[in-house]
Structures are given as structure tokens and as C-alpha cells.
Amino acid sequence: MPFLHPCGKKEPWYKRKEELSHHNGWRCKIFQPGEGYYKGNWIRSSKSGKGVEVLQSGYQYEGDWDRNKKNGFGVLSKYVPNEKAFHLIYIGDYKNNKKHGQGCMHYDDGSIYEGGFKYDKRHGFGKCWFADGSYYEGCWINDLQDGYGMFVQANGNRYEGEFQNGKKNGLGEFYHLATSQRQIGFWENEICQTSTIEDIKFRQSAKQPTPYPIQISKLNPRVSCSVFLDKVEELINNHHQYWKFSYNNCPKGVPPSRR
Question: Which of the 8 DSSP states describes residue 133?
């Protein structure tokens, strides 16, 4: 009969009222007392989708959201009153409000990092331009250089080899720019334990073509030269495999701009 209600359980009226009370869809601005405001998409009163959050501290995040958390791709910047402009802090992937995935980070001291992140820490392959003019390209674990990488000092000297906990540890090659020499050796906590030095091509163009003064007092006599020589071939093989991957997938370039 036409006057009968359709069969099935009817949703309570308070459930319908509750659903209507939720923020859904695009909202121009929702202000958060004492914090700032959010402008973007909502799903059931949760920031979800695309949106911009501006905080009173000057920080601004623009990107993807999921249930009130930064998830996906986003850009974090901070407003500088003296310059009346926003400075880029981070651009890249997020997971549960943390930098996670691939991204580029600009630090307060002027350093720039571009590469992998894992829960707010540098992790995986990455490149870092330090404020003092030095440069690192290689593996990171738990925010420290760890694994195979290359470190170029501000004066042009270059180390290629193994790192552990942010320090030179293991087999490596050190290139001395001033003397045009290559030092192949074994490092422990930044100190070379044993090594050999040889001239490299175009040594006649070096500024100071003299033997590099090795700190004999810091050499470790316990390190066997035979063990060291046996490991040289392993170092060379790792060197070729690493740079083949590095230059094919992550070519070196100039530091990214902050604006």
C-alpha cells in the first residue's frame, strides 16, 4: 500500500543529525583557537584530501591529509617577517605527520639534504650540501652517514669509501687535491690506520706536488698490511658498483633553491 513505510531498519534521528553536523567537502577556512586555521577538504570533521594549514608560529603546510595527519605529498614553509616571504623548509613525502619517503630538507644553518627519509630521519640514498661548503653523497641510516658514500671537503679533498655512524670507518680512498695524490687505506673513527699513497694523473698541475704527511703516530700497528691489501680489490669493486647506481639514478647537481 502506498501509505506504508518501506521495509528495513530506519536510522535514528540523532544519527542523521550527527552526520549533518560533520564538516564534509571543501571549507574556506576553519579556525583553530590559539593555533591557526585550515583551509581545504574535510571528511567527517577530519582534515582529509588536499588542504593548507597555517599556524600562528609562521609555519605553513600545503599538501595531502588523511584523518587529520599529513599523509602523502606536501610542502612545509615558514614565513619570515623581515623579508615578507615564505622560506621553504621541506618538500616531499609524509607519513603520519612525519617526513617519510623522498624529499628535500632545508636546515636553519643553510645545509640542504635531498634524498630518502624514514620517520623524520635521513635514511637510504641521499645528497647533502653542508653549510661549510662540504658535500656528501651516499647512504644514510638513522640520520647519519652509514654505508658507502663520497664526502668532498670544502678545500676539494675527497673521500670515497665506507662510513659508519657518521664517521669514516672501513676501506676508502682519499684524494688530496693540493698534491694530486690518492691514498688507499683503512679508516677507523675518522683516523687512517694504514694506507698506500700513489700519484694520480696530471700531478704536474698540482699546487703542492709533495708527499702527503701521514700521521705516523696515529697509525695502528695491529692492522695487518696483508689483510689491507687483500681488501683493496673488494673496495674497487664496491666503488664501481656504487657509482654506477648513483650516477644512473641520482645524478649530482647544484643545491636546490629555497624559494
Answer: S
Q: Alpha carbon of 75 to those of 42, 83, 96, 111, 179: distances in Å?
A: 19, 19, 15, 18, 45
Domain spans of the chain, in order of start: 24-100, 107-116+125-134+144-251
Looking at this protein, which amino acid is placed at residue 194? T
Secondary structure of residue 239 in the 3-state scheme: helix
- Nearest residue to 79 via CA among 113, 54, 106: 54
Written as one letter, the residue type at 100 is: H
The pTM (predicted TM-score) of the whole model is 0.72
pLDDT at 216 over 90: no
Q: Which helix (H) or strand (E) holds 16?
A: helix 13-21
Residue with cell 621541506: 90
Beta bridge partners of 87: 78
Q: What DSSP string runs through 153-190?
A: -TTS-EEEEEEETTEEEEEEEEEETTTTEEEEEEEETT
End-to-end alpha carbon distance in the chain: 69
| CATH code reported for the domain at 24-100 | 2.20.110
What does each C-alpha distance from 102 to 90, 126, 127, 138, 223 come to in angstroms?
11, 9, 12, 14, 40
pLDDT on residue 223: 47
Instruction: Please state, in angstroms and rounded to a whole number, the distance separating the CA atoms of residues 73 and 115.
Output: 14
Residue holding cell 615564505? Answer: 86
Contact in structure between 214 and 197 (CB atoms under 8 Å): yes
Spatial CA neighbour of 104 closest among 250, 238, 246? 250
In Å, the largest CA–CA distance within the chain is 106
